[in-house]
Write a structure and sequence with these properties.
Structural class: mainly alpha
Number of strands: 0
CATH architecture: Orthogonal Bundle
Largest sheet: none
Radius of gyration: 18 Å
Length: 120
């Protein structure tokens, strides 16, 4: 059975380029590169790859970066938070409901870790 590869497009890689540019902007807020690395919440090698648009981030990496840098995840992607909230609302998704859902998931995961169990 033949395997078909999807043709690449010019738009591929836009996420890693935008993230690299935003991370470089954010890096300038710190006194040194070492301080930025320490604050970023990801490994130095991962941060290097992201800063140089050499890899696509996972959602977990984006969440870690946003939380560690204390900025909205939208900001990492160069998206205005209010605009993102309006777009979600236009699809019937309320930001607070999403936050509540995520928070509930974190509570469940924390309970799993504390109890040494995992829901199946």
């Amino acid at each position: 059975m033949p395997i078909f590869k999807r043709k690449s497009t010019e738009s591929e890689g836009w996420l890693r380029v935008i993230l690299a540019l935003r991370l470089r902007q954010i890096e300038k807020r710190y006194a040194s590169y070492e301080e930025f690395v320490a604050k970023a919440g990801v490994s130095k090698s991962t941060l290097y790859l992201l800063l140089n648009a050499k890899t696509n981030p996972t959602f977990q990496t984006l969440e870690n970066l946003a939380a560690s840098l204390e900025i909205p995840i939208w900001s990492l992607l160069g998206v205005d938070e209010q605009m993102a909230e309006r777009n979600l609302l236009s699809h019937g998704l309320r930001v607070q409901e999403i936050r509540d859902f995520v928070a509930e998931g974190h509570k469940s995961r924390l309970a799993e870790l504390l109890n040494g169990t995992k829901d199946t």
